[in-house]
Amino acid sequence: MKVAYYPGCVAQESGKELDMATRAVTAALGIELVDFPTFSCCGSGFIDEANMTLNVALNARNLSIAERAGIPTIMTVCSTCQGMLQHARHTMASDPVIRGRVDQTLSKLGITYQGTARPKHLLQIIVEDLGGADKLRPLVRRPLTGTKVAAFYGCHILRPHDIMEFDDPEEPNTFEEVIRALGAEPVYYRGRSQCCGFPIQFVRPETAQRIAGTQIQEAKRGGADAMATPCPLCHISLDNYQKEAGRTVGESLNMPVLHLPQLVGIALGIDAKTLGLPRHLVDTQGFVQKISAVSVPA
To answer: CATH classification of 132-290, choosing from 2.60.120.1440, 3.40.50.10540, 3.40.50.11810, 3.60.15.10?
Structure first.
């Protein structure tokens, strides 16, 4: 499967481990990544608040780049990027006024938006295009046996459902299917599809940290050995700010938080350095050591 790879901003800078893990895992899954250096930022929801038309134009341009290359799928690894690209696609199809403005803007760049490219998150591609659990199980070389993993979906990959068109917005289960296929036991807890606090991290940090701390506490009380998320912004809240979150909720949390491709990569037998695990602020070594050493014949 060939996809236009849209890493987003975080995976190229502060969260480079996400890009490292994505490239290693997609190669193992048979996904061919095509890089486009001319992709721009998705706007991350901030531009959208100030100028919706500009935000749609930015993302319609990104979609058009893949269209012109004849690649129908843009693969994202960030829930926010997925949300912005999918919102743009939906708006271009449903709002003729904004569509007209965007088309006029893009025409000055020599770009014509066709609407043939669709953004899909890596999680969607695994479960919808590659066969999900049935595809993953035969590839597992280091099953996550004996561990409990709490998926943290966050907001943008699920809602609004009529635009995102993926999983159940309140009771999702696709990530848990992946966790089971990798050999771990999924942890179901109330906060797994709620906000991580990142959108207000720099406005009301204590509130943001309380939100993140509460989600981690719930996963921990459910017996989780680690959490995993499809969004690097959620990862920042849950991993980078975990110490502050722990102080806010009055508990030392010490919860490893993995990116989706890192969790998959561990089970596929990819080494920790290649997956960028040493870059995390919360140590992941204890979780990796707990994993069963039983291997699956190639």
So the answer is: 3.40.50.11810
